[in-house]
Design goal:
Strand order of the largest sheet: 2-4-5-7-6
Number of domains: 2
Order of helices and strands: HHHHHHHHEHEEHEEHEE
Shape: elongated
Number of strands: 7
Number of helices: 11
Strand content: 5-15%
Radius of gyration: 31 Å
Amino acid sequence: MRFWKIDIDFRNRRSVIGVHILLWFILYCVMCSLNHAALYEVNIVHPINLIGNLDFIIAIVLNHYLLVPQIIYFFRKRNWANGILFVLLFYACSTLIANFPLYFMTNLFPDNRYYRIKYEFYGIQTWEDIFSNQPLLWTFSAVFFWNFATILIQTAYNLYQSQKEKLTILQERNNMELNFLRMQIQPHFLFNTLNNIYGMVLDNRRAADSVTKLSELLRFSLSGSKQEWVSLKEEILFLTNYIDLERIRHRPEKVQINCTFSAATSEKQKIKPLLLVNFIENAFKHGVNANVGTSWVDIELTADEKSIRFYVANSRLLTVDNKHSNLQARDRGRQEEYSGIGLENVRRRLELEYFEKHVLSIKKTDECYVVELTLLF
């Protein structure tokens, strides 16, 4: 039976910062309770605790957020030189910061026997003492032990979050596949019908090519949605076919379509299927109208070994005269709907499949919409 419920949104930056501050304060109180030998009482606001334990907390926080992540990063990348350099920096900073209270307290409270004995046994008297056994033992008990504890807690939490995200993604994927199966028509019938149409329009080369592209689009939509990853080459081919079909629908003098794909399409580069087409589809759906002035759509995709950068910009439908005012109002409403529900679905998918590995920027001006997406490998 639960008497209260704690509901913390860990995707909210303020919530995360608040929880971290609370945990560090709890650690400070624990250290104060362990430091009762210096005061013969537990007093978290006593100068001895404020100076001594806060100094240790600073060292632990510095290591936890700055030095330890760098050490892990360099060793994962097998950059041994920088990794060893940061290990030495980690030890030197921890030792100097941990020994500062001993020196400071001995001079500030000369009558305190506890710190005087600690300083005589563990304190750094000369620079050579930094790597001696006594300061190392003091640093381990005052800083390293707590750093190991916080790292273990962080690792356990990350593993828990990773498993939770995997279960969420699996559940979402199952729900999406179920909804997709409910909405789709018989694919074999659709492909057979397209083949029949293709045979009837062979005399019209442009129409035949269009049917071929449409067939490839549908085939990738049906097969790709069942795969966890597809190659970037396949995704670009899918986007190219989609854009080519849009070119057929719109007259060049009314709609300007600029498309650039400059990516090293290696089979090793993978991407979640049907992720980018949503932005292109909405750019044409909500930013192109041959009845209202001249429209345009710019699409650009670049990729390297570390990331994929995707850019889509489209014109906003501006009123040319009073005759089109009602049309403009209707299209503006469609755009607002797109910016609400449509983008929220894309954001949700990015959060599930590219958690902390994507940067999405959406900008709106009086003239255009701009979407910039970066996916990290």
